[in-house]
């Protein structure tokens, strides 16, 4: 999953939504799904219909409590959202400043976990979280895919929002924290293994729970087509 390296054809639904405005492919995921930016103010995700159908109601629900994109429209295999201000934590502007990205990701997850009400959450656990997980340290509504690219930062490097909520659901907070810290190693390898983990956890406000981190990383690795 990364910025596209070769031209990506624009699907008919994106041409229709753009209605003459400029279109740019900004992201290709590991399943071949593509995110297009339209007119500089909107995004259209095109890809697996099942995954995008799961994301739409989660965005609509989470937006009542926290900073996630507004859904403008959706259909089979596509999801049209309004731009959330900010730049992905893996935007080149933070490449030389992983500490800023790690801090914002930790702050953002804390904001998300504090804001979303477990008791009112209509969604079950994230797809990759096993039913036989250890007793929760603290059950929260997890992001579900808390990899670095899914946190946005403002111009000053502060947390400004979350995207990619298709796997949002109730689980122990260590499900999110284990994957968020692991993802730093993929996206900011200059820190060496675990190099920026403490910064993320410090911004979140938790000390590493080594056993739960190991459990949820194994669960994630067992479920994903490839690390990235
Ligand atoms: N509404 C939005 N506002 C701002 N940025 C967005 C929005 N929607 C998508 N993006 C940008 O496009 C990128 C891809 O979107 P998203 O993460 O939802 O796609 P994905 O294909 O599910 O990602 P992944 O590869 O993590 O599975 C995001 O990292 C973000 O930079
Ligand atoms: Mg994403």
From TrEMBL:
Q: Which UniProt keywords apply?
A: Antibiotic resistance, ATP-binding, Kinase, Magnesium, Metal-binding, Nucleotide-binding, Transferase
Can you tell which superkingdom this protein's organism belongs to? Bacteria
Ranges for domain Aminoglycoside phosphotransferase: 128-216
Q: Which Pfam families match?
A: APH (PF01636)
Q: Which InterPro entries match?
A: Aminoglycoside_PTrfase (IPR002575), Kan/Strep_kinase (IPR024165), Kinase-like_dom_sf (IPR011009)
Q: What GO biological process terms are annotated to this protein in UniProt?
A: response to antibiotic
Catalytic-site annotation from UniProt: 145 (proton acceptor)
Q: Which GO molecular function annotation, any one, does this entry have? A: ATP binding
Which positions does UniProt annotate for Mg(2+) binding? 150, 164
Similarity comment: Belongs to the aminoglycoside phosphotransferase family.
What protein does this entry describe? Aminoglycoside phosphotransferase APH(3')
Natural source organism: Mycolicibacterium flavescens (Mycobacterium flavescens)
């Amino acid at each position: 999953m990364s910025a596209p390296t070769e031209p990506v054809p624009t699907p008919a639904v994106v041409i229709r939504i753009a209605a003459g405005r400029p279109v740019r492919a900004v992201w290709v995921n590991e399943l071949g799904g593509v995110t297009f930016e339209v007119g500089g103010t909107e995004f259209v995700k095109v890809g697996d219909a099942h995954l995008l159908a799961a994301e739409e109601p989660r965005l609509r629900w989470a937006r009542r409590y926290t900073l996630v994109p507004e859904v403008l429209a959706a259909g089979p295999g596509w999801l049209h959202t309004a731009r959330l201000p900010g730049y992905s934590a893996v935007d080149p502007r933070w490449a030389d400043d992983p500490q800023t990205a790690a801090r914002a990701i930790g702050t953002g997850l804390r904001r998300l976990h504090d804001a979303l009400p477990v008791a009112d959450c209509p969604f079950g656990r994230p797809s990759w979280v096993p039913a036989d997980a250890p007793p929760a340290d603290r059950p929260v509504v997890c992001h579900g895919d808390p990899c670095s690219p899914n946190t946005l930062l403002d111009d000053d490097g502060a947390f400004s929002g979350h995207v990619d909520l298709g796997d949002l659901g109730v689980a122990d907070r260590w499900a999110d924290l284990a994957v968020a810290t692991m993802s730093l190693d993929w996206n900011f390898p200059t820190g060496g293994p675990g190099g920026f983990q403490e910064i993320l956890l410090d911004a979140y406000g938790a000390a590493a729970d080594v056993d739960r981190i190991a459990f949820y990383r194994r669960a994630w690795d067992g479920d994903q087509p490839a690390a990235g």
